[in-house]
Amino acid sequence: MRLAAALAASVGLAAPALAEKACFISYSGFEEKIAHLDIEICPGAPMKPEEGFCRIGLDGGAVLIYTFRHTDAEPCLARVDRYEFNDFVGRFGATYDKP
């Protein structure tokens, strides 16, 4: 009995460690439901294409930068930065040079 209880407890503790990390918002779900523009570089912190990519959206007077990281299954939303439009333009400019 003790051995069975110990094995059950050890399996119970190991299961969460083995669980796959979930992606709350995948790029495929984002792509079809969120109005956005594709951009070739991420403002402020350019990423290597193999690491991820960014998309940009507008919400009233705010600029939203959506950052996606590549995962095993598909790209996953990792971060959203929100800037007031004038702050965004003051920080990053109104234009950018394509890489």
Q: What's a concise summary of this model?
A:
This protein has 99 residues and is α+β, with helices and mostly antiparallel strands. The protein contains three helices and four strands, in the order ααββββα.
Short descriptors:
single chain, 99 residues, alpha+beta, four-stranded antiparallel beta sheet, 4 strands, 32% helix, globular, signal
Describe what you observe in this structure.
The chain is of the alpha+beta class. It has a domain at 25-92. Helices cover 32% and strands 27% of the residues. The protein has a four-stranded antiparallel sheet. Strand 3 (62-69) and strand 4 form a beta hairpin.
Chart the SSEs and their pairings.
Blueprint (H helix, E strand, L loop, with lengths): L1 H17 L8 H7 L3 E2 L13 E8 L2 E8 L6 E9 H8 L7
Antiparallel strand pairs: 1-2, 2-3, 3-4
Keywords: Signal
The dominant shape is globular
Q: What is the distance, rounded to the nearest whole angstrom, between the alpha carbons of the first and last residues?
A: 65 Å
- Which structural class is indicated by helix and strand composition? alpha+beta
- Count every helix, treating DSSP H or I runs of 4 or more residues as helices: 3
Helix content: 25-40%
Strand content: 25-35%
Keywords: Signal
Signal peptide: 1-19
